Amino acid sequence: MRSTIAPAxxxxxxxxxxxxxxxxxxxxxxxxxxxxxxxxxxxxxxxNLVLGSLRWQLALDARxxxxxxxxxxxxxxxxxxxxxxxxxxxLHLDRVPxxxxxxxxxxxxxxSKERGAAGMVNAVLRKIQASEHRTQGAEHRTPNTGHxxxxxxxxxxISASVDLAAQWAHPAWMVERxxxxxxxxxxxxxxxxxxxxxxVTLRVSAPNSPxxxxxxxxxxxxxxxxxxxxxxxxxxxxxAQVRVxxxxxxxxxxxxxxxxxEAARVLDACAAPGGKTAILAERLPNAQIxxxxxxxxxxxxxxxxxxxxxxxxxxFEVADAAALELQPEYDLILCDVPCGGTGTVARNPEIxxxxxxxxxxxxxxxQVAIVRAGxxxxxxxxxxVYSTCSLEPEENESVLSEILTASPxxxxxxxxxxxxxxxxxxxxxxxxxxxxxxTQDGPFLRTLSGIHPCDGxxxxxxxxx
Length: 465
Known about the structure:
Blueprint: H1 7-21, H2 26-29, H3 33-36, H4 40-55, H5 57-66, H6 77-92, H7 98-110, H8 118-130, H9 154-167, H10 172-182, H11 184-194, E1 201-204, E2 215-218, E3 225-230, H12 234-238, E4 242-244, H13 247-259, E5 265-268, H14 275-283, E6 288-293, H15 296-305, H16 308-311, E7 314-318, E8 330-336, H17 351-354, H18 359-376, E9 378-388, H19 397-406, E10 410-413, H20 415-424, H21 432-436, E11 445-447, E12 457-464
Parallel strand pairs: 5-6, 5-8, 6-7, 8-9
Antiparallel strand pairs: 1-3, 1-4, 2-3, 9-12, 10-12, 11-12
Helix pairs in contact: 1-4, 1-6, 4-6, 5-6, 6-7, 6-8, 7-8, 9-10, 10-11, 13-14, 13-20, 18-19
């Protein structure tokens, strides 16, 4: 029997269910032939439904539990997914007819192995629809957490973070860490940023000649970055006039290239998806570049997507960066290591649903192993750039502290001089240098999502004397 469920809701449900029962990523599942086959309107709706449901999942679950006969009942993935998808539409999307949401949510459950839960799904969603406390996405009230003062009791500060986490659908442990490390205002800004779709940021091949057919505005830091306002990216991507890449990610690669402008041999130790490798190839055209990644699939995708003019100059190698056995032959090594990704929650909302605080210690150990392996391949006088898209000290400062303690002859170069050099050469735009001072912390680069309009990144430059 032919499904009567709207195509966007049906595919959104299947994607969200796959994420719930596996380690699949929304970014991968939203770029499949099944999604591409939808109309433009349905593709946009599917993206909204999937990412919106993930962004607000913790708050949606809390709201759903209010209307369950047994609030502590364990729901099957199928039932929970249908309820979340329906609740998200009722609470956050004004233009979606409630009767269509209710009908399709019930039908989704009826067509699953949990068809017996259809009545419960219908009842819960009708109660949510009738409830007075409707939320409207960006119109959330900012939590009244106030500013932490010297006399604030620790338990009061924790309580404020718990309230903030509940308001903005984040894990309480995550928000408390941000408030403690960066302050309440920054924690609020990060949470708010995470709940909105991030802008599409481009790397343009000709900064002074933006691609025709695209309406863009300048990036906040870099002359080669543009923010897409509207337009079809397809032609510009096919002609290699632009690449999609967050501006903080671009900035890390620019710093790496500036750290060793005369480098003859370069290693990108964790290269996929390849945006930073491409910038290294652009800025260091005479260097031999080796791009390493543990995933053959990701490396093959990277090889396919890189412009042919850059791809020809790059050597690709499938390997575990932590297990590399290198000789001291590289002038520059970039270690953009795997991490918890808390600086990229806006574009990867499932991170806050999957990452546990205990995971940070495991990530830390692997990150240290990657840097140690990289340092063995660095020439005397060479530079190793360490970076993450994490906001957590275990993955940033603590990694460097452990490396420096165990590595005589290795030091951290102040990032200030490199940023000044990028500003002098026009790589950083006129206001970018000043904006980066807002979170300057010691010799490191740090961008904070929400404070800066980009992903949260950390970077440091190590020198082998």
